[in-house]
Amino acid sequence: MLEFDNYAEGFEEDDRLRSAFTRSLTLHLLHRPAISTVDRSIGVPRTLIRYWHDPHDVPDDVSDCLASWDRLRDDGFEIYTFNDTSAAAYIAERYGALQVKAFARCRHPAMRSDYLRLCFVLAEGGFYVDADDVLLGDSWKTIFENKALKLQPLCYDIILGRMISAAEIWSPGLATEDRIFYVNNNPIAAPAGHPILRRSLARATEKLLGSDPKPEIQSTTGPGNLTAALVAHARELMLVGRPFDFELLDDWGAIAETRWDLSYRGDARNWRNMKALGL
């Protein structure tokens, strides 16, 4: 049982508490049935969203990843690939001055992608995937069985400097010391208006418009931001005895595969190089 009473309001801003709650939440979901109370007649819209900042300079290997999803059109999907210009135009059309200003302060394409996916899926609903993901078989269909938000849990081992495998994350015996538990912001699948995405967008906007001239990407717009919104929302639901309106995916690896050997990973287009390049 998740001891949510041990977490005070605002705990999600503490890195250690956020990680501990995420780990407890993952184990809690092992023993909790799927969301039977969610209306399954209205699922996640069959809209696929991707992002590549410059439509005139898409590396061939990234194009191959993007093309792997094209067959979803045969299953009734609308597919959108946003770039820096179209994303700015979309946010200006659907949101207000604060969000427009926040997007303009995203100093790397990855941050702009982070922010756009929150804006779009919150407003329209749909299914976001990164441009370096390759679609595998037909297991994607499980994502559209209900209108719960779907996210992927992750765990990073600080000492080993590597990610823990997806299978290990769901093991009750997994050690927690020197490990960070969180959710990825890829994929994101949800109906329009989901409260976790609303909270996540509000938090990202506030941080982008804050006093820090170079806000850190993970905690501002990336997985740290989304994890903070998730755990705060989960605690609120449990305090009032309401069912979860989200699911943590335990089979994303059967749906898509991330390609790590892409050409852009060695240059400034890879957000992981921001610090080394002084960005």
If you consult CATH, what is the topology? Spore Coat Polysaccharide Biosynthesis Protein SpsA, Chain A
Which architecture would the CATH scheme give at its second level? Alpha-Beta Complex
- CATH top level is Alpha Beta
What's the main sheet like?
4 strands, mixed
Number of domains: 1
Helix content: 25-40%
Beta strand %? 5-15%
**Overall residue-averaged pLDDT value:** 91
Strand order, largest beta sheet: 2-1-3-9
Annotation field: number of helices: 10
The strand count comes to 11
N-to-C series of helices and strands: HEHEHHHEEEEEHEEHHHEHE
Query: Which structural class do you get from the secondary structure elements?
Result: alpha/beta
| Chain oligomer state | single chain
Distance between the termini: 43 Å
Spans of at least 5 consecutive residues whose pLDDT stays below 50 are none
Rg value: 18 Å
Pfam families: Gly_transf_sug
Organism: Dyella tabacisoli
GO molecular function, one term: alpha-1,6-mannosyltransferase activity
Protein name: Mannosyltransferase
Word description of this protein:
With 279 residues, the protein is an alpha/beta fold. It has helices spanning 15-30, 60-67, 84-94, 97-104, 109-124, 166-169, 195-208, 217-220, 223-239, 252-255; strands at 47-51, 78-82, 126-128, 133-135, 149-151, 153-157, 162-163, 179-183, 188-190, 246-248, 256-258. It has a single domain, classed as Spore Coat Polysaccharide Biosynthesis Protein SpsA, Chain A. It is built from ten helices and eleven strands. Strands 2-1-3-9 form a four-stranded mixed β-sheet. A three-stranded antiparallel β-sheet has the order 7-6-8. The longest helix has 17 residues, at 223-239. It is globular. The chain starts with 14 loop residues before the first helix and ends in a 21-residue tail after the last strand.
